[in-house]
Amino acid sequence: MAKVAEAMLRDIKKDTIDFGPNYDDSMKEPLVLPTAFPFLLVNGASGIAVGMATNMAPHNLIEVCNAINASIENRDITSEELLECIQGPDFPQGGIIYGRKGIKDAFLTGRGKITVRARYTVEEIRPEKEAIIVTELPYMVNKATLIIKIADLVRDKRVDGISDIRDESDRNGMRIVIELKRNVSPKVTMNLLFNHTALQSNFNVNNLALVNGMPKLCTLKDMLDSFIEHRFDVITRRTKFDLKKAKEREHILEGLKIALDNIDEVIQIIKSSSNVNIARANLMARFSFSEEQSQAILDMRLQKLTSLETQKIIDELIEIRELIAYLEGLLADDKKILDVIKEETTELSEKYGDERRTEILNEEINGMIMEDLIEKEDVVVLISNRGFIKRVPLTAYKEQARGGKGSNSTVLKDDDYVEHIFIANTHDKIMFVTTLGKAYWLKVYEIPEGTRGSRGKHLKTIFEFLPDEDITTTVQIDEFSEDTYLFMATEKAVVKRVSTYAFRNAKTRGIAAIILDEGDKLIKAELTTGDDDVMLFTRNGKGLRFHEESVRAMGRQTHGVRGIKLSDDDDILVGVSIKKENEQIFMLSEYGFGKRTEFDDFNPHGRGTQGQKAYNVTDKTGKLISAITVNDTDSLVCMTSQGKTIKLSLANVSILGRNALGVKIVNVAEDDSLVGVARAENDKVDPEEGAETAAEIIKNDDSDEPTLFDE
């Protein structure tokens, strides 16, 4: 048996526990072990009986022993105070426990859910290729079964991004290697594995135990008190047993001492007796010995008559009398017995205790949220005039030189064209404001993912739109706050400012954002801080700069106020730009001309005025279609009504004055026109990539198979 088993069986022959018949009444067996080792807490237990089940977690021996001693020192100690001694379960396989709520529930109530995750690290095995190294598993998780499960998930394509998995475990420890494909996020892959495999497991504590023969749901204090009570009983019975044996030995030694003091007479009595029985009786009659003392004298060997052996008997008698005094004092004082329990528990801790293996983090896991399973990446979101939406990874578009023709970005049916395009991160929130002035929002990852050749999914399958309701503008929102605002502008130049906090409950059912006049529609919405300068741009090239405070914050159910005065009947508002540090305004015309202009080239004017010339509109350039805020490090994604897309760096677009014509951005076909432009951070673009034709896109596109959302 293991050495620690000695501590569980210690003193079993000293009448410390009761014995009872075994299952067939053929022998006696201990009803409970006299263990000095707190087995139930340290080792844990799991089992099912008739209508009852137990599931106890293992704990660290040193911590449990410290808690036992703390309970002895303070018999009124609370479970909360015991939490300072025992951090929580300590599983032999290691792993990481997330959160302390389940531990606290288990210790205070007897039941609790403890979330355990595998321990892993990420190693770079080749350039741009990483591997996840799993070194510890949750309690009771079988390594071979786990590897098979992961392989099945990869085969069924439920977990993407894994290229290989192998077991490199040896005598030095566990090592499961999960090789990832290039540019795959280890965090997202692990979150998927946590969600689908036993790499994250819940240990549901149910501390049901038999206490005095009755099942009881035990708290930590209950279990420690029961153990101390058990040890008190064992040590009391052991002390009584030792005291009885000591007194029996004292009785014998007293007889031997008397005999040695009168050795000549004792020898004479024995020699004169005809047999052993007569000798025993004569000794009992002469010296008032008991039968046991007389027998011990008769059994004494002649070597005991030496002076050295005689002294040993005298010394042993002194020692045994001291032991008797100690044992009697122990039985007379409960505190002394508790001190013995403390002493033996400390000795056990020092002899068999080891360091904690399971790490406990304060971070709680309140169920896996979808963001944990979605990799953060920039995507292009496309919305067509007929309401089809999709997202495509930004990496699907290669950067081109200024003046290129662009590449096919979507396949549209007759009479449909791309109406909205923007760049967003998969974890961003996107708010949609419709022609009816209602606001909706969702996470970007909830938008159906498509390929460049897919059509997407209709918005009415996502939002609860009315029959005549369509998306008119979108805006990216990090958090809904009373300190940020949604600045809205309509085609008829009506503007309005509303706190984003007012839209926190919009979601897919939608809530009112602005009350629109008949024939008007929302064309743009931007986020502001409450202290921004705003520029409004019209189709005929006029621009007006004013401070947003001139538009007071309103409630959702309001119309708004005039932003810029439209000079011509055919003029409408086409763009809204917010002044930001080190950024410029990019303006784009319908025939592919564009320019960058410094914000400070425009003078502030009063709200509701005509402003000043911002873009030189001619027959060559066509009308102004969009104006956005950009900086030198940005790239642009431009989209035509027929779905052509071009991505280019703003470094190729000159900064020009207010009256300048601009430069050619996109070659637009005669039957086509630009409908929108979006900005992308340049660090998400590969500047080494050259122009790519539509034929090359089709040839190089590795996503020919339709996705779940393709139509």
UniProtKB/TrEMBL annotation:
Top EC class, one word: isomerase
Keywords: DNA-binding, Isomerase, Topoisomerase
Pfam families referenced in this protein's UniProt entry, alphabetically: DNA_gyraseA_C, DNA_topoisoIV
Keyword Transcription regulation (UniProt): no
UniProt xrefs under InterPro entries: GyrA/parC_rep, Gyrase/topoIV_suA_C, Topo_IIA-like_dom_sf, Topo_IIA_A/C_ab, Topo_IIA_A_a_sf, Topo_IIA_dom_A, Type_II_DNA_Topoisomerases
GO cellular component terms listed in the entry, alphabetical order: cytoplasm; DNA topoisomerase type II (double strand cut, ATP-hydrolyzing) complex
GO molecular function: ATP binding; DNA binding; DNA topoisomerase type II (double strand cut, ATP-hydrolyzing) activity
UniProt catalytic activity: ATP-dependent breakage, passage and rejoining of double-stranded DNA
Ranges where the Topo IIA-type catalytic domain occurs: 1-373
Enzyme Commission identifier(s): 5.6.2.2
Skewed-composition ranges (Acidic residues): 702-711
Highest taxon of source: Bacteria
PROSITE patterns attached to this UniProt entry: TOPO_IIA
Segments forming a coiled coil: none
Renumbered residue ranges of the record's region Disordered: 681-711
GO biological processes: DNA topological change
Family: Belongs to the type II topoisomerase GyrA/ParC subunit family.
Assembly with partners or alone: Heterotetramer composed of ParC and ParE.
Protein name: DNA topoisomerase (ATP-hydrolyzing)
Lineage: Bacteria, Pseudomonadati, Spirochaetota, Spirochaetia, Spirochaetales
